[in-house]
Amino acid sequence: MFDRTEPVLILGYHFFTLTRRSKFCYLYLIINIYSRMIVAWEIHQNESAEHASQMITRACHGIAAMERLQVLYSEMVVQ
Q1: Using CA atoms, how far apart are residues 40 and 43, in angstroms rounded to an integer?
Q2: Share of residues in the chain with pLDDT > 90 (%)
């Protein structure tokens, strides 16, 4: 049996490629799936797994979520 006093935390990690005047930039975004609250976002000039990893770590520590995080859903959106 589950005995939880707080809701399960499910975060969504999204990666967007943005273009403007033939230049690319990359939006890294983390949202809370249930509340749809933006937990963290960053824009970078280059695509890097290191950027994503550092942002996810900072975001989870910032909301004290590491012990509650159940699922990190990932999606890449190309526009």
Answers
A1: 11
A2: 5
Q: Distance between alpha carbon 2 and the CA centroid of its chain, in Å?
A: 27
Cα distance between residue 30 and residue 42, in whole Å:
9
Paired residues of 32 in beta bridges:
11
Residue carrying structure tokens 């499910």: 10
What is the C-alpha separation between 32 and 36, in angstroms, rounded?
Answer: 5
Q: Of 15, 34, 21, 31, which Cα lies nearest the Cα of 63?
A: 31
CA distance 6 to 18: 36
pLDDT band of 1, cuts 50, 70, 90: very low
